[in-house]
Amino acid sequence: MNSLIPLFVIIPLGCAFLMAMLGRFIKNINKFITPIFMLSLVYLTFHFIINSEGTLIYKVGGFEPVNGIPIAIYMVMDGLTKLILLVISLVGFLAIFYSLSYTKQYTSERKFYVLFSLMIAGMNGIVLSGDIFNIFVFLEIAAISSYALVAFGVEKQQLEASFKYQVLGGIASLIILLAIGLIYWNTGTLNIADISRQLTINCSSPTGTNVFIKFISVLLIAGFGLKAAIFPFHTWLPDAHSSAPSPISAMLSGVLIKAVGIYVIIRLFFNMFPLSYELSMTITVLGTISMIIGGLLAIGQWDIKRMLAYSSISQIGYIVLGLGIGMLVLATGGNKAVAALSITGGLFHLLNHSIFKGLLFLSAGAVEYRTGTRDMRKMGGLSEVLPITSRTSLVGSLAISGIPPFNGFFSKLIIIIAAIQAQYYVLAFLAVLVSVITIAYFMKLQKYTFYNNDGSKWKEKKIKEVPFSMAFSMIVMALLCITLSLLVIPDVREIFLKPAVDVLINTADYSTKILGM
Amino acid sequence: MKGMTIIVKKIGQIICPVIFMFGLYIILHGHLTPGGGFAGGVIMAGAFILQILANGNILPNLRKEEEGLEFMESAAILGFLILAGLGLLFSGGVVFFANFLDKGELGKLISGGFIPIENIVVGAEVCAAIATIFIAMVVYKDEEKK
After folding, report:
1. Which of A176, A198, A197 is nearest to A187 (CA)?
2. Best mutation site among A4, A7, A8, A10 for testing chain B: the one with the most B CBs within 10 Å?
């Protein structure tokens, strides 16, 4: 079982370079092989979720620890990892299936699939790595391929967005590298579990170490916050996510900012650093502000994908809020059940957001594919000519606004209940308020895009429904929006969410399990 | 792009093989001396770039060159991955990157199991990548002039 773990990196990496080679000789081979590779990743993820329990550790090269000090590169698979891997492979497969028709408008289709596989390899690597420097390496793989993918259309706007993304991403990488360097300087190790042990030993002694930990934490929040587009660092996201090709927007908004940003933040701050009230408060406040700011900025947008991008900032805020409240409760020594509920809400919303935001971006892409515009003022009445896209987009909008029985309702409800139970009434109120704002801008999106007039303009132009592969991905995602609400049933939650929550609740277990003590 | 004067061309002709051989030397001795696949690959690409700078080249040729290099790059990475995967296979499906070949005698050229082979693959990859980047810049500049 353990030896299958590296396959998560080998499969997409091998796929990428195989495509780069074979694609030159055999036309369209990418379109057949890439979805199969992605499907195998989905299978592998489910295999791990169902058949394995606890923490699986894989030591690359087979080097055993010397005197209890780990020297090999560790790959760690626990509950949280499996959840994020599920998100990556599921949305990745659906996005690549959608791309089969969508990429026909580009001249170098081959490179699209190569870069896409590389991005998947990078994200899988980040999630599996038990080593902070390897997180950085894989982060760069994922980030650099996403820079290229954002600029894939090579038009002025896309190049500008990609440039902005590169500059800010570069700054983020620099800050992260500085933090990693400082950690190595202070603890003498790069393994997350070992760093955690060193920090706990150092923490009991002089106050200097606490200052050091705070400095590192701030650097890491800034660096990974930039990647996750949390409030003061969100400015690159609306440009980059709106100008990328639509399947890529779905991947970036749905998966990349979570695997690269949120996942690393929660992994490091729950499992590596000793929990502290100040940092938990910082994270919660930043999450709350991005939730509000993203929602308010989204209302004024007329570009359909830009509105979705701002909405991503807002929803990421919800996820951070849920996780932050959990962190606060744990740091202040409150009731663990409340913390567990709050973290469940955050992770559940993470899973849901990747599905419905992916769906909404794919639907927006379908609209753009057929009408050639992203401006909502030029649309209207599209439900007459694009029935499938209109319905799936409606499902996505309802889910993200938190209308029962869709999945978004339950995750938001859990977060709000947890906030009330933890006695953060203001946060609970703000979460409800932003939910109302969310409904407002998604009603605007639905009205101006799909309804508002009889669509005679589009009928004259003879616009047809999108091709099969695009429609298929959207329908599957729309179905997932409903089926994921089943996760509120405790028995189902045991399989998917509980292992992930347990990893975060028992903060010290991560390092003791890996170091084998 | 245009070439340079006869002096530069001649010197380039004399010096290029030496640089190329030095790169090969660094790659092959990667497991014994400092340097290895990456450093050697960069040096080899340097010889290649020197040739283009000294003698010049025309755009269609460069494009063809670029395609070949791209292929070599992908092939080298795949080779590296396959080698690592073979480790997984030979160690009974346990260890990715397992060193399954005979490790030989310390200090000899043929020793270290499959490390030298991996160095060669990495060298090919780095050489191809650096040369591709260089050619991409030259092609871009030439196209911009038109």
Report:
1. A198
2. A10
Question: Tell me, what DSSP letter sits at residue B105?
Answer: -
Distance CA B88, CA B95 (A): 5
Contact A487, A318 (CB under 8 A): no
Query: Would residue B1 count as lying in a domain?
Result: no
Predicted local distance difference test score (pLDDT) of residue A209 = 61
The sign one gets for the Cα dihedral A329, A333, A335, A337 is positive
Per residue in A326-363, pLDDT (tens digit) is 999 988 888 888 999 999 999 999 999 999 999 999 99
> DSSP labels for A43-54?
HHHHHHHHH--S
pLDDT, tens digit (0-9, with 9 covering 90-100), for A159-213: 999 999 999 999 999 999 999 999 998 888 888 888 888 887 776 555 556 788 8
| Chain-chain contact of A21 with B71 (C-beta, under 8 angstroms) | yes
Say which residues have a Cβ less than 8 Å from residue A351's Cβ, sequence separation at least 6.
A83, A86, A87, A411, A484, A487, A496, A497
Q: Is the confidence at residue B3, as pLDDT, over 80?
A: no
Residue whose C-alpha is closest to residue A20's, from A110, A119, A146 = A110
Number of domains chain B contains: 1
**Which range of residues forms the domain containing residue B14?**
6-145
Dist. CA A418–CA A428, nearest whole Å:
8
**Domain extent at residue A24:** 2-515
pTM of the model: 0.90
- Looking at the complex, does the CB of residue A14 fall below 8 Å from at least one CB of chain B? yes
ipTM: 0.83
Q: Using only the alpha carbons of chain B, give its radius of gyration.
A: 18
Which whole-number Å values give the CA distances from A334 to A326, A328, A331, A340, A501, in the listed order? 10, 8, 8, 11, 16
What is the nearest CA distance from B78 to chain A, expressed in angstroms? Answer: 6
Question: Can you tell me the distance from the alpha carbon of A46 to that of A25, in angstroms, rounded to the nearest whole number?
Answer: 34
Q: How far is CA A2 from CA A43, A51, A267, A314, B94, in A?
A: 16, 12, 21, 38, 8
B126 falls within a domain:
yes
Q: What is the pLDDT of residues A453-482, one digit of tens each?
A: 777 777 777 778 888 888 889 999 999 988
Interface residue A62 vs chain B (CB under 8 A):
yes
Q: Is B86 on the interface with A (CB under 8 A)?
A: no
Element (H, E) at A19: helix A7-22
Please give the tally of structural domains in chain A: 1
Residue B133 in contact with partner chain A when CB distance is under 8 A:
no
**CA distance, residue A21 to nearest chain B CA (Å):** 6
Query: Do B88 and A3 count as a contact with CB atoms less than 8 A apart?
Result: yes
